[in-house]
Design a protein that fits this description.
7-stranded parallel β-sheet, binds NADP nicotinamide-adenine-dinucleotide phosphate, Rossmann fold, single chain, globular, alpha/beta
């Protein structure tokens, strides 16, 4: 039977690995830390500890495997040296038969609130988005040169049980008033796992798919909906000009990009019907 490997087996990857185990299929989860390994053991997922930045990937049957690549890029720079190392490792281990890569919607850059689909050109702006774009390009090159199959998922903000900004809301960190807040896109973790499985099973070779719920809303609206659903006090509202001195550089970066993502392609090509197409549905299942 084909080996399934989840490289970067964290919040999403553990749930994904459990789906394979539930079907009676073998799977190996790869993490970087002892803590990650202990978490996998608790979930019953066979695990290996390897740091893609430092270690060889010996002990992993990569040749001919189904490989999910969920390792985030490094924290700095405009390249993803980890994905470069992964592709290099394929030269000695042999290539996977099919690789599903979890990229981000950040590669589209700022679209000024426009509705966009996968045909929209990538115009990454932030360094973190350049790193993702670099990883996508590296993997497409590998696919072209070796014939290994590649599916890229451009993933929106992931939320679910244990992945809600409750702490931020409790601390009362201010939000930009709704009329100045950019559009953001999200996906519930269970739906993302379903997209990953469908992409591995029936994604078109070389295709890119947006993994999102298709119901974007303002970033501030998201935080307010979470606060209301969790019964927490709504954080104070400030203007975008005031935000410059009060919010983190990371948050200011997110505030400078606005786009509304279509998920038609995952519905039409992968035949997916999302369990949580709206935040109202998804938050109820997350709290
Ligand atoms: N959060 C979002 O809204 C969002 C949106 C779009 C895309 N994504 C991307 O989607 C992917 C899955 O997300 P997630 O929430 O499941 O991430 P996560 O919980 O942070 O899991 C990442 C996993 O990668 C492992 N890892 C990190 N660096 C590694 C290295 N150098 N070598 C080997 N393993 C390494 C971690 O190991 P340990 O368990 O040992 O730490 C962890 O298991 C990530 O690439 C994430 O950046 C996230």
């Amino acid at each position: 039977m084909t080996e399934t490997i989840v490289l970067g087996c964290g919040y999403v990857g553990t749930r994904l690995a459990c789906q394979y185990l539930g079907r009676g299929e073998g799977v190996t989860g790869v993490v970087r830390s002892e803590k990650g390994l202990a978490r996998l053991a608790e979930a019953g997922v066979p695990g290996l500890r390897r740091d893609l930045a430092l270690d060889d990937l010996d002990g992993l049957a990569l040749a001919g495997a189904r490989l999910f690549h969920l390792v985030p890029p490094p924290d700095e720079g405009v390249e993803d040296a980890l994905t470069h190392r992964l592709v290099k490792a394929f030269e000695s281990s042999g290539s996977p038969r099919r690789l599903v890569y979890l990229s981000t919607t950040g590669v589209y850059g700022d679209c000024q609130g426009a509705w966009i689909d996968e045909s929209w050109p990538a115009r990454p702006a932030a360094d973190r988005s350049h790193r993702r774009w670099d990883a996508e390009q590296t993997l497409h090159r590998w696919s072209r040169e070796t014939g290994g199959e590649l599916i890229v998922l451009r993933v929106a903000g992931i939320y679910g049980p244990g992945r809600l900004p409750l702490e931020r809301i409790r601390r009362g960190v201010p939000l930009v008033r709704p009329q100045e807040s950019p559009y953001t896109n999200r996906i519930h973790v269970d739906d993302l796992v379903a997209v990953c499985l469908a992409a591995m099973e029936k994604g078109r070779q070389g295709a890119i798919y947006n993994a999102c719920d298709g119901h974007p809303s303002g970033m501030t609206d998201y935080f307010l909906q979470v606060a209301d659903a969790a019964g927490l006090a709504r954080p104070p509202l400030i203007t975008k000009a005031e935000a410059a001195g009060r919010l983190s550089p990371g948050m200011l970066g997110y505030l400078s990009e606005s786009r509304r993502l279509s998920n038609r392609k995952i519905r039409d090509e992968l035949g997916l019907e999302l369990r949580y197409p709206t935040l109202v549905d998804g938050l109820r299942a997350s709290l």
